[in-house]
Design goal:
By secondary structure, the chain is mostly helical. The chain contains eight helices and no strands.
């Protein structure tokens, strides 16, 4: 394989990875798995996972869960849904997995976030609240002594 062919292959892979990321962003509430995502872009699941991690710094599953948690945070800030309702609304099928992942990314359980977040974002436009409350990717949330 020449250098030009390798470059063309890499560009093609990046375009397919972008389609996978766009699909996750759009369909996060649907039941998605790596095998299905890989089939959609004609890659093996292993190759997709490796290339996605190289390009975006996390696995497709981790990216999907981060999207779900971001949406869950917005729904919990509204305050009109229970944690269980939010869990299923964002596409999670297990309340335990949802709560564990939420706590890892946000630093507090969803029930605590629901009560505290309403007061923390009072008077802030929703678009700004979304930015300042975005979960931390690729690491656990740092411990917050004030909570």
């Amino acid at each position: 394989m020449t250098q030009d062919e390798a470059f063309s292959q890499r560009l093609g892979d990046l375009a397919r990875l972008r389609r996978v990321r766009d699909r996750i962003d759009r369909d996060y509430m649907q039941p998605l798995n790596v095998e299905e995502l890989a089939r959609g872009v004609h890659m093996s699941a292993g190759h997709l996972s490796r290339q996605f991690r190289l390009a975006y710094g996390e696995s497709p599953y981790s990216y999907l869960m981060t999207r779900r948690i971001e949406r869950a945070m917005a729904l919990l800030r509204r305050g009109d849904m229970s944690v269980t309702e939010v869990c299923f609304e964002v596409g999670c099928s297990s309340l335990g997995t949802f709560s564990t992942r939420f706590t890892e990314l946000v630093g507090v359980p969803p029930s605590v976030y629901r009560t505290e977040s309403a007061q923390a974002t009072d008077g802030i436009p929703p678009c700004v609240a979304k930015q300042i409350t975005r979960p931390i990717r690729n690491q656990e949330a740092p411990p917050d002594e004030s909570r």
